[in-house]
Amino acid sequence: MKAGVLIRPLAGALALALVASPALTATIEVTIDKLVFTPASIEAKVGDTIEWVNKDAFAHTATEKGRWEVMIPPKSKGRITLKKAEAVDYFCRFHPNMKGHLDVGP
Amino acid sequence: MSMKHTAALAALLLVSATPFARAADKPTDPQIAHIAYTAGVIDVEAAKLAIEKSKTKDVVDFANDMVRDHEAVNVQALDLVKKLKVTPEDNATSQALSKAAQEERAKLAKLEGAAFDKAYVANEVAYHKQVNGALETLLIPSAENGELKTLLETGLKIFQGHQQHAEHVAGMLK
Ligand SMILES: [Cu+2]
């Protein structure tokens, strides 16, 4: 398609503008119930926010070893805004058997 | 005696070194509730000793995590027995667990510094492993009430998590 070819050089700049606009970013919810992250694997984009909703009476964390940690108190929420396109394996530091995955696209 | 019975007896003798051996007869729900509650109390008591004695941040943090989680599980357990109108029933397994724990605490109380840290964390790994085994093979399969079973299954995940957490702390102490 001809128009597509013409537009392509602009696409990068446009994508950046879209990411910068908070209205177009999403908040993706991950539920924690009985020590399980659901969904266990999430696809998201840079600028999106992941919100963990903890239904347990236990404190949990979402931790990527040595990089970041979100505290998620009992019956409460924790959130992080994604800044980098990457694949991330995270876990709960208190219960390392709790595991989750984020696929962050640009 | 048939082969089958001999095998069953041999299996019993093999596990008889652990406090859970006496529960070879399937425990009832009131007994299971008592055992699970006791197992939590024991870990809280060990943790309180560690909070008092240890000067290592990783060990004290871990111990605080144990107190917080096991107290939370036990609040849920008490709420459930109240709701089900079940009175937890003391039994030989609970008593054997408490006795073994008392002996372990007496041993730990005599240790100081790095020796204490190491022994406490090693015991946490071993203790959680033992309770996990009992939950998986005896307590969860024996539980009649569905809600009790669900709570025990959550307890198993907590204990498995703590075992891994304790193994991680043990690795840091080396
Ligand atoms: Cu957790």
Describe it:
In chain A, the strands form 3 sheets. In chain A, strands 2-1-4-7 form a 4-stranded mixed β-sheet, with no helix packed on it. In chain A, strands 3-9-8 form a 3-stranded mixed β-sheet, with no helix packed on it. Chain A has a single domain, classed as Sandwich (Immunoglobulin-like), CATH 2.60.40.420. By secondary structure, chain A is of the alpha/beta class. The N terminus of chain A is likely disordered. Chain B has 174 residues and is an all-alpha fold. Chain B has one domain: Ferritin, core subunit, four-helix bundle (Ferritin, Up-down Bundle). Helix content of chain B is 82%, strand content 0%. Chain B contains 6 helices and no strands. In chain B, helix 2 packs antiparallel against helix 5. Chain B is elongated. The relative contact order of chain B is 0.16. Chains A and B meet through loops of A and helix 3 and helix 6 of B. The site of copper (II) ion has 6 residues of chain A, from loops. Copper (II) ion binds next to loops of chain A.
Please give the CATH class of chain A: Mainly Beta
Spatial arrangement of strands, main beta sheet of chain A: 2-1-4-7
Order of SSEs of chain A? HEEEEEEEEE
CATH superfamily annotation of chain B: Ferritin, core subunit, four-helix bundle
Q: What is the radius of gyration of chain B?
A: 17 Å
Please indicate the count of domains of chain B.
1
Rg on CA atoms of chain A, Å: 17 Å
Q: Which descriptor suits the 3D outline of chain B?
A: elongated
> What are the secondary-structure elements of chain B, in order, as H or E?
HHHHHH
Low-confidence residue ranges of chain A: 1-10
Global structural class of chain A:
alpha/beta
How is the quaternary structure best described?
Answer: heterodimer
Helix content of chain B: over 70%
Q: Give the largest interface.
A: A-B, 14 and 18 residues
| CATH evolutionary superfamily of chain A | Cupredoxins -  blue copper proteins
User: What's the architecture of chain A in CATH terms?
Assistant: Sandwich
Residues in β-strands, percent of chain B: under 5%
Keywords (chain A): Signal
Protein name (chain A): Amicyanin
Signal peptide (chain A): 1-25
Domain EfeO-type cupredoxin-like (chain A): 11-102
